[in-house]
Amino acid sequence: MNTSVLKKIWRPFLAILLFIGLWEVATRLFSIEEWLLPAPSDIVMEARSVIPTFLPHLQSTVTLSVSGFLIGTTVGLGVATILHLMPRVRETFFPFIIISQNMPIIVLAPLLVIWFGFNALPKLIIITLACFFPIAVSALGGFTQTNRELVHYMKMMGANKAQLFWKLELPHAIPSIFSGLKIAGTYSVMAAVVSEWLGAQKGIGVFMTLAASSYRTSRVFVAIIVAMIISLAFYGLILLLEKFFIRWQQKGENN
Amino acid sequence: MLELRHVSKSFGNKQVLQEISLHVANGEFVSVIGPSGSGKSTMFSLIGGLLEPDAGEIYLSGENITNKRGFISYMPQQASLFPWRTIIENVLVGQELQGKKDYERAEAMLERAGLGDVIHAYPHELSGGMKQRVAFIRALLSPQSLMLLDEPFSALDEFTRTDMQKWLLSIWEDDEQSILFITHNIDEALFLSDKIIILSVNPAEIKEVIEVPFKRPRDEELLLSEEFLQWKRKIMDVIQY
């Protein structure tokens, strides 16, 4: 198994190495200023020295994005369930949900600060807004695409609405809910960093703004790379959960 | 046990069922046979309570169950197993809906039905015939005393089908359940049933009810006997007439 993973991974791995190498050579060859584009080696050096002071920022952002993600997931699943079980409500409010998604979060952010101040609340609202949509839409899609034959079976057997939902529609929607969760997971980190730009004591976003305003570009890169790593870690974690939840599907066809 | 009294149903201007009256006795195996589009599935939806008849009533053990759900157990054309449940969890669905789960009985039943090795397997690991067996056991384990079987073997190949019919009889003959069985296969109806109800089309009316005289238990030999072929010819005559 390990060799097969290695076989799969060596090409992209080599491509990344090549890219970093080119970057390093180019910055040296054309003697690009560090504040404009730092070489990878500069970024690594910077990371080494800055990591101890960076840890509290990291922790703050992770906490923020995880809590935002959890709230967003809860709200998203809740909204999807309500809209699914009450078709009238869906007809009335679904357009609102679509419109709400076409509003750029960054534009909304200053407004939220005016209304709720500089505490955690507006930040959580931003992350929740970013996460809730992909989850709600994927869950709703999963609910409505439930296999008609299974629905017919359940109805013939006398299942009521609650039984139909808990025993059939919800488990049936789990694969699509997970595709929503994967998108929301990566959104949540991005939204957390953006929300920290608005004003916070700690966080990768704060660290980034401070570094950028003093032209410490290497630090900005450190922040970007760490944000990427967090995002990837979220994605990986959700992938693991998915594997666990839909292990019944692993070997076979998708019924 | 089950009684339909003058049940009629139409969709828009199209009359699908007209004045259907039929009777299934306790422990009886009754087949409904008729060409496709003769409203057999509509009849099942009416008995299952998913649809309301325009006229007539449906009784089960003396109780009026017209437009009421949860009184019958059902086996659809496609096995319709839940892919995220193991076989044992699948066969318990019917009991779950009515409240009580009897794990031991389900296990014993699966063993007896030759499905003991796959109790903890997932449906996608089973062949089409095996899935249908599971679906039948699921219907049998449901607490309702009447089973509706909607062309359960029509998607199977000829060899599997004959095997399945023999298997179904061997399981069912030990049980007290009544069965109402939809098919468009005359051999199947004759081999399995005590009584065959022949429907006409547009709208479906009962053309004739035939009591099948063959003794139980029945085996494959019957399918090739002179008597069987005579009955088959008789039914074909009724359908063509």
From TrEMBL, chain A:
Residues 58-241 form the ABC transmembrane type-1 domain. It is found in: Cell membrane. The keyword Transport applies. Pfam families: BPD_transp_1 (PF00528). Keywords: Cell membrane, Membrane, Transmembrane, Transmembrane helix, Transport. It comes from the Bacteria. The keyword Transmembrane applies. The chain crosses the membrane at residues 62-86, 93-118, 124-143, 220-241. Its main location: membrane. It is a multi-pass membrane protein. Belongs to the binding-protein-dependent transport system permease family. This is ABC transporter permease.
Automatic annotation (TrEMBL), chain B:
The keyword Cell inner membrane does not apply. Keywords: ATP-binding, Nucleotide-binding, Transport. The lineage of its organism: Bacteria, Bacillati, Bacillota, Bacilli, Bacillales. Residues 2-226 form the ABC transporter domain. It comes from the Bacteria. It comes from Allobacillus halotolerans. Transmembrane segments: none annotated. This is ABC transporter ATP-binding protein. The keyword Transport applies. One of its GO terms (molecular function) is ATP binding.
